[in-house]
Q: What sequence folds into this?
């Protein structure tokens, strides 16, 4: 089966010179052929993500073509006058895949709105809602290394495609022949005929206006704030600089080595704002500029990381820390200004710090827990919108550096987060406080919550099986303690059951089924494990609670070692 697939591709995959060359190089290499052809790249609610290259298990014009033909069938099943918006980032072949997808949609009778240059993922969500499209596509692999790319599909609400729609797309993909079953046309001809239309500056300006509306301290003078910003060779360069300029920050220095789009990411092999390596160029520049804060957005500009100047040394803040600070800042300032709505709502994911619960309680805010993935936060905004109550939504975030204030998009947005982080920094600066000062005050008030994440890479066929085996063992192992610390309850989100370990009493978890296991200790600490939905990894989320930072960090280290042993690494 694998060899037959490979031979067929050698004969038929002639639409991309890079694929022709790669297929020739594979000849005689059974391992390489097996990895490229042993399965079809799976389409789920996150779309497609994989290594760029030749094969059914790789991202290329043929696997993208099958997905787009499936999406076209879905759109045509719900309307006879469908439309789809498309965006792409700086990754290798993102522009090629975007144009290819547009041509397929146009050939299927669907109107296409496509950005003429790379744009952030949240701006795709905005375009879907602006044009009232039936679906959207963004070509990106977020923060993954350069060898990856991805295809994320969106629904008419601007959220990532729902499970039912994703299953429909997959059902069509499974029937479509990648060489003979995909309709297509010439992109330029379709553009000239009006079947494809470039998204205009008016839409971009409308988006930036909505972002600017999310400010909570417009009166704060931003002109004295000094910022170093890096788009990490990605799509954030223009919109982030535009919004910072719009709110009056004149002191923005862009890291020159990382300003221009480059899908090879020559200065950041892992373009992830969660890690210090992504800040290395910015940190060197900081010696000269002496900024208040460093900002780094990932290639598709839906996540932002920061480093803060503390007496000349720059400390990276985690996603939990930044999200907690933003939630507290927004609630504090809106309460002071009387702009907090009645019955306000904030949303976080189940792997995000529980310190947010203490803050939400302080301000009388309903905090909703959702599964991992920002689409679940977007869904909560949609539920409020259905009742005409979207203004109740205040803020949502996930620990992986994704934040959103406002309901104008339904995905995490590093443009609005960058703006609010800078505003928050400037506001506290006028009070003589750093973000660390504020964070320590929150710990003093509510308890010290320290969180971390650890990932274990398990690539290929054997890696996928290994991850499945780990999750089965955790689910059925009957664990009662972690390194001598008693487990109070185990939450199996796959079975939607929470089990009290001491009594054995089971309660239903009112969330959709998801392959996640959580071990929760009596002091509020936790170890939560889930396979990544976009990378060949299994992830462990750790949270430790202490009376002070020292005790919490000591417990976190203990949990990390015990959790690693629990997973078998």
A:
């Amino acid at each position: 089966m694998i060899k037959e697939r490979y031979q067929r591709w050698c004969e038929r995959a002639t639409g991309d010179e890079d694929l022709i060359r790669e297929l020739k190089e594979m000849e005689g290499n059974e391992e390489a052929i097996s990895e490229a052809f042993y399965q079809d790249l799976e389409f789920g609610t996150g779309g497609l993500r994989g290594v760029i290259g030749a094969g059914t298990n790789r991202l290329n014009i043929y696997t993208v073509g099958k997905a787009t033909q499936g999406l076209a069938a879905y759109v045509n099943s719900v309307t006879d006058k469908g439309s789809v918006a498309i965006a792409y980032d700086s990754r290798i072949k993102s522009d090629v895949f975007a144009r290819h997808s547009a041509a397929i949609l146009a050939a299927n009778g669907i109107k296409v709105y496509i950005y003429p240059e790379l744009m952030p993922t949240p701006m795709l969500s905005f375009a879907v809602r602006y044009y009232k499209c039936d679906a959207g596509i963004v070509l990106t692999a977020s923060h993954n290394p350069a060898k990856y790319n991805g295809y994320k599909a969106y629904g008419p609400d601007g959220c990532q495609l729902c499970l039912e729609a994703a299953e429909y797309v997959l059902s069509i993909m499974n029937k479509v022949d990648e060489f003979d079953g995909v309709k297509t046309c010439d992109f330029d001809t379709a553009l000239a005929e009006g079947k494809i239309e470039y998204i205009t500056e008016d839409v971009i300006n409308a988006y930036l206006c909505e972002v600017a509306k999310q400010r909570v301290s417009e009166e704060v003078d931003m002109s004295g704030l000094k910022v170093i910003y890096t788009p990490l060779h990605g799509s954030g360069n223009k919109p982030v600089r535009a919004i910072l300029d719009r709110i009056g920050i004149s002191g923005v220095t862009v890291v020159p080595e990382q300003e221009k789009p480059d899908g090879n990411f020559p200065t950041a092999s892992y373009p992830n704002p969660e890690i210090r390596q992504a800040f290395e160029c910015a940190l060197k520049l900081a010696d000269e500029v002496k900024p208040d804060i460093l900002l780094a957005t990932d290639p598709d500009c839906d996540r932002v990381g920061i480093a803060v100047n503390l007496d000349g040394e720059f400390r990276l803040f985690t996603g939990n820390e930044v999200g907690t600070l933003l939630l507290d800042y927004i609630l504090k300032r809106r309460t002071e200004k009387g702009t907090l709505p009645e019955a306000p709502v904030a949303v976080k994911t189940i792997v995000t710090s529980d310190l947010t619960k203490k803050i939400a309680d302080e301000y009388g805010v309903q905090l909703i827990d959702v599964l991992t993935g920002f689409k679940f936060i977007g869904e909560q905004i949609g539920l409020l919108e259905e009742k005409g109550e979207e203004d109740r939504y205040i803020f949502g975030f996930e620990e992986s550096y994704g934040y959103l204030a406002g309901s104008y998009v339904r995905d995490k947005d590093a443009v609005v987060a960058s703006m609010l982080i800078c505003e928050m920094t400037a506001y506290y600066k006028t009070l003589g406080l750093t973000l660390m000062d504020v964070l320590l005050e929150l710990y003093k008030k509510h308890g010290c919550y320290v969180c971390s994440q650890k990932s274990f890479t398990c690539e290929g066929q054997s890696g996928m099986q290994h991850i499945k085996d780990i999750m089965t063992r955790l689910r059925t192992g009957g664990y009662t303690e972690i390194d001598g610390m008693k487990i109070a309850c185990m939450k199996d989100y796959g079975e939607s059951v929470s089990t009290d370990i001491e009594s054995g009493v089971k309660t239903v978890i009112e969330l959709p089924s998801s392959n996640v296991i959580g071990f929760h200790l009596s002091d509020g600490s936790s170890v939560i494990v889930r396979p990544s939905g976009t990378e060949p990894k299994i992830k462990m989320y750790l949270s430790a609670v202490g009376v002070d930072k020292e005790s919490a960090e000591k417990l976190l280290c203990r949990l990390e070692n015990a959790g690693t042993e629990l997973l078998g690494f």
Q: What stands out?
A: The mean pLDDT is 95. The domain at 39-199 is CATH 3.40.120.10 (Alpha-D-Glucose-1,6-Bisphosphate; Chain A, domain 3).
